[in-house]
Amino acid sequence: MPELGTQHPSPACFRYRFPMPTDITSDQIEGFLSEHPEWDREGPSITRIFVFADFKEAMGFVTRIALTSEVADHHPDIDIRWNKVTCVLSTHDQNALTSKDLELATLFDSYVV
Question: Which residues touch 33 (CB under 8 Å, ≥6 apart)?
């Protein structure tokens, strides 16, 4: 067992610096959606359903996005249905989409490439 205070390598998500969320324009949202067609806009949020081979892969993905979200201090709504994971991103305290939502969505996409 490692001693207290021992440094461990951290996942890439812990080395990423998340900026403060900023307002974004409708054009920026539309640009994001055209580059990421798997995401759908629903009011002040974006949603994507990720499909995996099985429950184990789905849960591995959920663990990864949970760690990333915790580091970003920006948490998606997550629904798990065996091999399907639905993620909904929105900046709730602003009741709007912000730059942080689009950044997290882009990172989540990179985890399934």
Answer: 39, 40, 41, 46
In which band, very low, low, confident or very high, does the pLDDT at 83 lie, cut at 50, 70 and 90? very high
Task: Yes or no: say if 73 and 94 are a contact pair by the CB < 8 Å rule.
Answer: no
pTM for the model stands at 0.80
Pseudo-torsion of CA 65, 67, 69, 73, nearest 10°? 180
Q: For the chain, what's the residue count?
A: 113
* Paired tokens of 27: 């054009």
Question: Which domains, from first to last, does the chain contain?
Answer: 22-110 (3.30.1360.20)
Structure-token match 């882009």, residue found: 106
- Nearest 5 degrees, angle CA 72-CA 89-CA 50? 105
